[in-house]
Amino acid sequence: MTEFVLALVLGLLFALGTFLVLRRDVVRVVWGVSIISQAANVYLVTMGLLDGSVPVLEGHGEGAGAVTDPLVQALVLTAIVIGFGTTAFALVLTYRVYEEHGTIDLLELGGETDGN
Amino acid sequence: MSYGDDTTVIARTVARITLPLVLVVAISLLFQGHNLPGGGFIAGVLTAAAFALVYIVFGMEYVQETIFGDEYEPDGSVAGPAVVDRYRTLFGVGLAVAAGTGLGAMAFGKPFLTHTDEVVKPSTEYVAWIPGADFIFGTLFKFHWATAFLFDIGVYFVVVGGLLAILAVVGGE
Amino acid sequence: MATEQLVVAPLLVALVTAILTLVVHRYVRAQKAVSALGGVAYVGAVAMLIQRVRSGAGSHGVEGVLTYQLSNWGAPFGITLVADDLSAFMLGLTAVVSLLALAFSILYVDEAGQRVSYHPLYHFMLVGVTGSFLTADIFNLFVWFEVMLMSSYVLVVFYSGPRHTKAALQYVVLNLVGSAFMLLAIGGLYSTTGTLNMADMARRLADPASFGITLAPVLGLSAVLFVVFALKAGIVPFQWWVPAAYRAAPAPVSAMLAGVVKKVGIYAIIRLYFTVFANAAPMDLALPGVVGESTLAFFGPVLFIMGAASIILGGVAAVNRDNVDDLLAYSSIGQVGFIVIALAFAAGGVVAGWQAPEPYGSVAVLGLAAALVYSLNHALAKAALFLASGAVYESVGSIEFEDLGGIAGRMPLLSAGFFVAALSLVGIPPLVGFFGKFLVFDAAVNAGSNLGIGLALLGAILTIAYVTRAWNRGFWGERSEAVEQATPQYGLFATVLVLAVVALGVGVAFDPVVEAAIDAANAALETGDYIEAVGLEDSLTSDGGGH
Prior knowledge:
Chain B is built from 6 helices and 2 strands, in the order ααααβαβα.
């Protein structure tokens, strides 16, 4: 049951993120990207296996039964910190786009750059 | 003049009460981070949140003029307000501390970032006659030091410096 | 103990330099001095490490593979760094390009820009690149990728004009999505194999039954991961961010992106797909057009198609660009195509066991050596060309072909540098580019791929076409007004010339380089040694999967 719910939530998060990334509004794009990376984090947490002992608990885990894998949580913490930095950067970048072009609409921006 | 004239008295009062609490929690998280939930990152985020509260309620001028004694010029130059420079230095110092703890291990011939810790208890040999000596010297004055704490302090500075720099630059414009 | 510390030395030198430049950021001169010294120290650290690896020092009794356990946590739980011939080759290439691009930046990037954060970011990018080349932990690879990308975002965005903000935004968003996918693939691989250590993963994949692994998801997950690396390397169909980002970034950063950062994607493909995934025990691939039972049987054709498309698209698009940076950006897509088809031949060689004459022994080694030598050529030549483009911009004020003409007469030094680098890109002996192209052709011939030979030939012709056009439009012909009024920047020209001379020198003294490349190719294929050096029990030696 848990797996089913988590799978559903993951699917929804990815769908929402993808939908937002495809919008014209830069702020929405940034939201979309950060939702996708959060979804990846949720996915990582669900990868935590319930398969007994792990080396970090050697000597400390007396009496504990099945434990979730702490490694994925460490990974997710790292990923969250990185995602935090990149989101902050993307928002600052959005602000700069607005400052320089007076718009955050990607189609309007498209007319101003050369080439692509 | 007083700061924060454009915020409500409720906001200012709440800010005054919560600010010390947030900072104390942040510091306790920092101190237990080397072997319990907590650590430099989360403590740094909380500290930055406390500063963000001050920015919102009292304004950036307040922080800049009363805490650092800098002149406030909201000109939005490339480098942002003067206080950003201080945050950037803090960020650099934090990184240096964190990397320094890693390099320190190499001086002892251990791989980069190797950490060590030890529990120090004062000897109760000569004071055993005092009632409760075991409790006083064995538990109360027991001290657990870890080099990972130094690393955490570095991380704390990095996070505080980095976040406040972002807040000041974006908020200053 | 002293030798082991050397493994981490390049990483630490770059890290310490980055931090020091940050700490002294208020004193511009001190910052420049620290930055330049750090760049030199980095070259020194890399040179010592290469010397150490080449002299056959090794860990756990394996010659030429040095390992290092960060924080003193044992493998496979702690993060392992591995310096073998492959890592050493890539680090050497990085060191040369990074030092010259750094020297160029000090003269090129304006004072205000340097003061804010250019130097710390540059060195953090170097930290990320170095970490990616050294790490043997797949999640750690993700972290180093992020370090590298985060710095490159800022370098691309904040030193470009308002015209390029959209390009920068595109670059950032694309790579952020790429990072999320990388995380997904890594999470999946972890839950499938139960490990993040590359050596441990290779060991488990080779013997899935005793570790209780189902192999079926590995192919799909490695394909997701492949997309991310292809994105970083800018291979068709993930190439579209390349021209916009290179145009937006300042010249030395473009040189680093094209010369070094792209190679991180190539390196990751070699390391993960040839060292780790290639040894997945025979799995049943019921896919159309896939012959063989290794994951490389699937990735071989994929690499070939993507490489072929890159050569054609990059080459054709480069021919009619109207400014130097655009031309170089599209050219770098085409040139990476050469590297990728060499990898495809190597993959075919691994699957089919094709033989090649000595000193290579097999097409697998020949293909990988070709890819590595070509990477070196592309790093040197393309970096020199991007720096030359920056020097032209700084001197003349424009890099549009319509404003240029007759630079050769006005600025002979710069023109000589450009000319040599361009010839190396084309592949004229005795420059390193000749050997790169030659090895790619050799791999194609030994793989018996007529299509491959034809493609490489087409790519070579396209290269000649666009390089000639750039030379004719920019450097020969009548002097344009802008060129006539140019103020030559001799410091910048010197760095271009040095890179060109290095490309020439590597070509003249090619024997040690090709030996290093062959050893690196062997290191990539010797999974057994890799696992043993990390200190894990090798389950590969019995079944011969590791050659």
